[in-house]
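Students often ask why inverse folding is considered easier than folding. One informal answer: many sequences map to the same fold, so there is more than one right answer. In these notes we will look at a single instance of the problem. The structure comes first.
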């Protein structure tokens, strides 16, 4: 919607660094109280409506503020949910990995919150902050080598057990 290149996350992060996250406020998607779930579909709609209400000539002038406000709404929820998960699980440290861990604003807010809550925080060097697709592919390769096979009609599952969710696979477990 902002006309940024794909993938949008790094592009928004770069543009947001030039903007004011308080200039344009976007809603926070917390869903049910006490839940660790989140959804940003309402936030996307809020951005769409904000853009539709904005004169076209204002878009270029306010693009950095739009990106900063939008990013801030996402990052604030992610930080709050991450620390709520730490608290509810009794974890004594937090590690944030994957592509999203490269976001500069997320890293800054996580570090601020970890410092204020005296919680050890592990953020990998940016070189290692990439999409987890390679990790997922490696898990699949290891399952294949172990003789595990999935039928072509296997359903995707958003929540899997600690057994890698290989219960739908057949074959030897080695």
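Output (designed amino acids):
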């Amino acid at each position: 919607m902002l006309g940024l290149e794909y993938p949008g996350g790094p592009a928004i992060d770069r543009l947001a660094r030039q903007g004011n996250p308080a200039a344009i406020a976007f809603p926070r998607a917390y869903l049910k109280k006490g839940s660790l779930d989140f959804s940003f579909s309402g936030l996307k709609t809020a951005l769409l409506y904000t853009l539709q209400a904005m004169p076209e000539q204002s878009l270029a002038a306010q693009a950095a503020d739009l990106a900063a406000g939008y990013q801030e709404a996402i990052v604030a929820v992610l930080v709050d949910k991450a620390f709520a998960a730490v608290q509810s699980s009794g974890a004594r440290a937090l590690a944030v990995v994957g592509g999203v861990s490269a976001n500069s604003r997320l890293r800054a807010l996580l570090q601020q919150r970890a410092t204020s809550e005296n919680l050890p925080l592990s953020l990998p060097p940016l070189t290692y902050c990439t999409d987890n697709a390679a990790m997922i592919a490696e898990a699949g390769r290891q399952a294949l080598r172990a003789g595990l096979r999935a039928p072509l009609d296997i359903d995707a599952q958003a929540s899997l057990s600690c057994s890698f969710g290989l219960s739908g696979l057949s074959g030897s477990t080695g």
